[in-house]
Design goal:
The structure holds two protein chains of two kinds. By secondary structure, chain A is α/β, with parallel strands linked by helices. Chain A contains ten helices and 14 strands. In chain A, α8 packs across α10. Chain B is an all-alpha fold. Classes of the chains: A alpha/beta, B mainly alpha. Chains A and B meet through α2 and α3 of A and α1 and α5 of B.
């Protein structure tokens, strides 16, 4: 559904993308990760035909994005990170405007808008101006707008950023429902748990280059497959693990020996262990290690 | 159909606001009064000027601010992700502005009718053509890729106000010095003012065929240039 080959892009002499290549298959949820300024939003803007690459080729739905940007946008839904809906229009007017710009027949549009607003729980507020909406409601409306053309591909740029738990969960559920209906999802997010939960494959971009591409589990294995041991003590101690709140985390290839050492340490110092558990490293930990150049 | 969606959006968000409508009517009326008071000019001469000024100010009042405002409000990127090209956006903005110019021109026309002035129907054609022309000019002001509406409105004011003084609205062109007459011929507003004068029973400065031809050429040139410049500028706004 998406094919990107050797894309380069510069702004004011600064190279933002340096030969980016990847493919996204039909019905896949593809996570596109990277730190701020890595080139994620630039990639999304190129994929949606907003800006042209300096070199390289980009195909979406089989169309060359540079030659046919309007054709590409006919069946894609976009939820841009920084874009906004019209605050002086009502939710209904914003959605109907979107339908008009997709060229959807008015009667079909009305039925679709009603269904989407009900699905996303904002139908009761359809006649309220968007400037009175909370961030979560606005994002739900943006999601409705992205869905209004019944897209084959959806681009979601930080879809749950800044949302309350309920709204974020709802949008994640909707993303999974999209996958069930065969829609391809291109997702950028800083929320690694979300990416781990939703994505089939992930690409990590750093300084304009793709530095890793695999399934979330594959990415975790890339960092060595260490086991994380988490421990909590009954008081502050001078411990050698990484500290997260009241927990210490150690990464090890031999959890048995590490746990024995921790127990020994606790006995020596006279502290009580409140909890101890093991887990595989999270995607966030793998992401940090990859970005830190440890792979 | 997509152009009409842009038109509807513009009318709902920008043109149907009370202050915009009131300002669009009051500004030309106050300018008109400022020049009318104490001067012994025929009423049909003054009304033709008021009609020209109203169409000109109304058609160029809001259109320059739309692109920078949408860039600033972050609605432009959302708009550009729809399956539309820049030409559709510019045509929609021009059409919305044209409708606003035509609707507001009814105010001085009704005043003229109330004053028992007779008008030629050719005025209607002139208003429609000039409203498209001036709206395209308005869009041209916003081709400068700034997302600060005040910057664009300043550029707009720098062009709009001098134009009304050199276009024969307050002083008949044949009474201007030769240099002034040459400058007047550079302004598209001159040709519509001339059409309005003819429509209200006055002798035009130029043959009507020239007025319409030049106004049409200006419209095509301004619209084409606006589209081309916005194709470059819009993406710099996001």
């Amino acid at each position: 559904m998406i094919k990107v080959e050797g894309v380069e892009k510069s702004f004011d002499g600064r190279k933002v993308l340096k030969g980016v290549s990847f493919r996204v298959k039909r019905g896949e949820i593809f996570g596109y990760l990277g730190p701020n300024g890595a080139g994620k939003t630039t990639t999304v803007r190129i994929l949606t035909g907003l800006i042209k690459p300096d070199s390289g080729r980009v195909f979406v739905r089989g169309f060359d994005v540079v030659k046919n940007p309007v054709k590409v946008r006919e069946r894609i839904g976009v939820l841009p990170e920084v874009a906004n809906v019209y605050p002086d229009l009502t939710a209904w007017q914003n959605l109907m405007l979107a339908c008009g710009l997709y060229g959807i027949d008015k009667r079909v549009a009305e039925g679709r808008c009603e269904r989407l607003l009900k699905e996303f729980g904002i139908y009761e507020r359809r006649n309220s101006k968007v400037k009175t909406f909370s961030k979560g409601m606005k994002q739900r409306l943006m999601f409705c707008i992205a869905m209004v053309c019944e897209p084959e591909i959806v681009f979601l740029d930080e879809p749950t950023s800044g949302l309350d738990v309920a709204s974020a969960r709802m949008l994640r559920r909707k993303v999974l429902e999209l996958k069930d209906t065969g829609v391809t999802v291109f997702l950028t997010s800083h929320n690694m748990d979300e990416v781990d939960m939703l994505c089939d494959r992930v690409a990590i971009i750093k300084d304009g280059r793709i530095i890793a591409e695999d399934s979330p589990d594959g990415i975790k294995e890339l960092v060595g497959g260490d086991i994380a041991v988490e421990v909590r003590f009954d008081r502050d101690v001078d411990f050698f693990g990484e500290r997260f709140g009241d927990r210490y985390v150690l990464y090890t290839k031999d959890p048995n020996e590490t746990i024995c050492s921790i127990v020994e340490f606790a006995k020596e110092r006279g502290v009580r262990i409140l909890s101890i558990n093991t887990r595989t490293p999270s995607l966030e930990e793998a992401f940090i290690k990859i970005l830190g150049g440890e792979v | 159909m997509k152009v009409l969606a842009i038109v509807k959006k513009d009318i709902l968000i920008y043109y149907s606001k009370g202050p915009v409508v009131i300002f669009g009517i009051l500004l030309p009326i106050f300018l008109f009064l400022a020049f009318w008071v104490g001067r012994n000019l025929p009423l049909n001469f003054l009304m033709a000027g008021l009609i020209a000024m109203t169409v000109f100010f109304a058609s160029t009042s809001v259109s320059p601010a739309i692109a920078p405002w949408e860039g600033q409000m972050r609605t432009l990127e959302r708009l550009l992700t729809y399956p539309i090209d820049v030409k559709t956006i510019v045509l929609g903005d021009v059409l919305a502005s044209t409708i606003f110019g035509i609707v507001l021109s009814l105010v001085p026309i009704l005043i003229a009718l109330a004053l028992n002035l007779s008008m030629n129907v050719i005025l209607v054609v002139g208003i429609i053509l000039s409203a498209v022309c001036f709206s395209s000019l308005g869009l041209l002001f916003s081709a400068y890729p700034s997302n600060i509406p005040a910057t664009v409105m300043m550029i707009s004011a720098l062009v709009r106000f001098p134009l009304i003084f050199v276009s024969g609205i307050f002083i008949p062109i044949d009474q201007l010095p030769p240099l002034g007459q040459y400058i007047a011929l550079l302004s598209p507003l001159t040709y519509f003012t001339d059409i309005a004068r003819f429509s209200l029973g006055l002798k035009p400065f130029l043959p009507l065929s020239i007025d319409f031809t030049v106004l049409t050429l200006y419209t095509i040139a301004l619209l084409y240039t606006s589209i081309k410049l916005h194709e470059r500028a819009l993406i710099k706004r996001i």
